[in-house]
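Predict the 3D structure for this chain.
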Amino acid sequence: MTTKNESIASIKHDMMKSCVVGNNTFEVVYKDGTRAIRLHKTDIITFTANRIVLNANGWETVTTKARMNEYLPFYTGLGVSQRKYKWYVATQDGEVPYYDGMMFDYDGHHCEPFEMRMDNVTSNQATY
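Done. Predicted structure below.
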């Protein structure tokens, strides 16, 4: 069992407040206004101003999946499921394979990080 102090020790300097919302699960509000659901020492769901980010940090367990499903906003239609040991996320656009760091808008659509979208880069722009 992870105590609240153990769970937030590494983020204490960035955190504004936190509260226990379940067994080994905490809601954290960061100084920048970002909100997260933290299971043990991992922010499994992060709520930014315009995105929801999922991150199991490699811990694709029954508990992590259950917490994600419990705390994902109902109105988004997002949900995490598993078939043959692989995770999937139900979105408004259909089911997509899960990966750590995947992003969604608040309407439940899967979004690629801007910097990874090659259609936003023209051939004469600097590469990174």
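Residues 4-106 form one domain.
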